[in-house]
Design brief:
binds 4'-deoxy-4'-aminopyridoxal-5'-phosphate, alpha/beta, globular, 12 helices, about 35% helix, three-stranded antiparallel β-sheet, seven-stranded mixed β-sheet
Length: about 350
């Protein structure tokens, strides 16, 4: 078999690995931080009705500006945002890709604070953007001083934050984000994929948007909204950012079916988000019970928990998988990450872990 390395591929892509979360369809899937509760049946019915309507004109290209969706997203986020502030794509992964196509690329750099979401560096590589990893403080935190020092040392074109951070669950304070903004003339990007799971009162970077045209905040419908299969991610920023993304996006990148489904889900926001409190409860339970089992879980503001103290992560992963339970080995020595699922799924995971020798 030919390896891509043998093809005339770009030199800077040689030897790289693609996104690698194992995809195993097993009984208990707690590996990719989905909302494991299905969309309520009456919401599915309304989405079906809307898709049916969209199919009536499926011979035509969809609204290239996805105006109704942008209005619905602005209404959902609040904070005085309007459709002009919003942009969407096929998952926040594509939003980030478009962002780096417009603001990154060859000769430009992105500064980030690993361990963080693996796709950030993969998208940087794919767009030819230099990836500069910077140190976090103890407990995976990033103080304003730490962020500013890294920016001053590396002078990046773009700074990436992820709050709550995947895979650690750690929040990044608005003070850190504001200080980073003041320390750079570049784009400050904040990935808030898990924002809805944060404890009440933990402020979002959305509160910083006013008067900061280089600040870009992404969200997704894949997590709290239980809509991962639909592929809808979005960002909030100054309208000029959306104008920049119009230069690199493919025309009609959001299908009419995607737009209809997302509008339907947003029309039922309370029902779609009904399980968030429950998931927060399971997350907090995971932290408590993993500690009782002798592991070292990190406090989490997201829908997953990173825990250390695992002698052999690969062995634990394999033994759980053999029982139909998949979690995530994120490559951090002696650590594993588990998604907070339903109460039953969480119980299955904890019981299976407790029973391991
Ligand atoms: N950001 C973070 C931090 C994530 O963990 C994920 C998914 N695991 C994404 C973005 C991408 O989500 P999507 O493309 O489904 O919106």
């Amino acid at each position: 078999m030919t390896s891509f390395d043998e093809l005339p591929i770009r030199d800077d892509l040689r030897g790289l690995k693609p996104y690698g979360a194992p995809q195993a369809h097993v009984r208990v899937e707690l590996n990719v931080n989905e909302n494991t509760h299905p969309v309520p049946a009456d919401v599915v019915d309304d989405i079906m009705r809307r898709i049916h309507v969209a199919l009536g004109t499926i011979n035509r290209y969809p609204d290239r500006e996805f105006t109704a969706l942008r209005e619905a997203l602005a209404g959902y986020l609040g904070h005085g945002l309007t459709a002009e502030n919003m942009w969407a794509a096929n998952g926040s992964n594509e939003v980030i890709q478009q962002l780096l196509q417009a603001f990154g690329g060859p000769g430009r750099s992105v500064l980030a604070f690993p361990p963080t979401y693996s796709m950030h560096s993969i998208i940087a590589a794919g767009t030819g953007t230099q990836w500069i990893p910077a140190q976090r403080d103890a407990e995976f935190e990033i103080s304003p001083a730490t962020a500013v020092a890294a920016i001053q040392a590396h002078q990046p074109d773009i700074v990436f934050f992820c709050t709550p951070n995947n895979p650690t669950g750690t929040p990044v304070s608005v003070e850190t984000i504001a200080a980073a903004y003041d320390a750079t003339e570049g784009i400050v990007f904040v990935d808030e994929a898990y924002a809805e799971f944060a404890p009440e009162g933990e402020p979002t970077a959305l509160t910083l948007l006013e008067g900061r045209p280089r600040l870009v905040i992404s969200r997704t419908m894949s997590k709290a909204f239980a809509f991962a299969g639909a592929r809808v991610g979005y960002l909030a920023a100054d309208p000029a950012v959306a104008d920049a993304l119009r230069l690199v996006r493919l025309p009609y990148h959001l299908s009419a079916l995607t737009q209809a489904a997302a509008e339907g889900a947003l029309a039922h926001t309370p029902a779609m988000l009904a399980m968030v409190d429950d998931i927060r409860g399971q997350r907090d339970r995971l932290v408590r019970e993993l500690a009782v089992l002798g592991y070292t879980p990190y406090p989490s503001s997201a829908n997953f928990v990173l825990f250390g103290g695992v002698r052999d992560p690969q062995d634990v992963f394999d033994k759980l998988l053999a029982q139909g339970i998949i979690i995530r080995d994120i490559g951090l020595p002696h650590h594993l990450r588990v998604t907070a699922g339903t109460e039953a799924e969480t119980t299955e995971f904890l019981d299976a872990l407790a029973a391991l020798d």
